Fold this sequence. Notes:
binds 4'-deoxy-4'-aminopyridoxal-5'-phosphate
Amino acid sequence: MSAADDAPVPAVRIRDSVEAIGAYVAGRPAAPRTDVTTYKLSSNENPYPPLPSVQRVVEQAAEAINRYPDATATAVVEALAAHLGVPADHVATGTGSVGVLGQVVTATCDAGDEVVFAWRSFEAYPLVVQLAGAVPVPVPLGPGARHDLDAMAAAITDRTRLVLVCTPNNPTGPVVHADELERFLDRVPRDVLVVVDEAYTEFVRDPEVPDALALVRARPNVAVLRTFSKAYGLAGLRVGYAVAQPPVATALRKTALPFAVNSLAQAAAVASLAAGDELAERVEVLVAERERVVAALREQGWDLSDTQANFVWFGVGEQTQALAQAFDAAGLGVRPYGTDGVRVTIGEIEANDRLLEVAAAFRAGQTGGTPPAG
Length: 374
Ligand code: PMP
């Protein structure tokens, strides 16, 4: 052995911005049980199994997985353009909308640039921003767990390159309304991109929401982000997209990893758009279930934010871990967030019934007959 062999091996240098990042915390299933069916209500997934027509197309596509997928996802882009009524060059795809979000940050931010978003919001926002070496600027939600767009406008500096508006907001549920968003956009510098993240748009029934695609037509600095993971039930295949005017959409195509959308995902996305009516029926059931659950929880005395997504938010503060444990003990895997609250996805009808039972029992235990705290 030479002296060199004994020298301490230097650690590989990892970028500081990467060292600083915590791992993404994904929603967990409920602890395994033998006595009751358990339900995973922790990731805002669609509880329905894949449509048989979509599954068949994926099986057929599997016969050719020795080949690379279409690098430009042309069939998906064309089907989306027809479905949305937008030119194909306004559409950019990616590995889930979180992949597209990464493309957005890469396209807009150099190290040290700032990205403004509401907080609490989607867990991946600060991670994706930090991965690019950019600086997250979280702006606390306002009353009703809604975006505080005035505070977000005030947080924009000359280092801001990107603003994320999550509507409905994950994990709290409320939407941003058209009039407030227009006022906000009027205050954003024209060279700052505003991404309207509409991952849950298909579940929205509030008529006052903006027509985000019209905003994209009218404003070169607005992009809309959407996904096949929620209403379309393709979370496991990872396909999402952005709609934006060509300079932005072109940049998003450049910043995608090559072959980002795999061939099974491409086939399933096209087949899902073709099966839109069948999928819309499922979404209707989930929306009706959401309305039923929210009404019943309010009846129980819970003070809930107005959700327009496929989940409800219990903003219970210090009771967060206790409430999450109560759900878990009943076979429901849910998503606790520190000492902010618990997000529970609307799932199968039996799962939702159990959600209501656990919530009622928790309140009874907490309040002991005195006026409850929401
Ligand atoms: N945006 C929001 C607001 C979300 O809640 C999610 C999923 N939790 C995503 C984007 C990303 O979804 P996907 O990458 O599966 O498209």
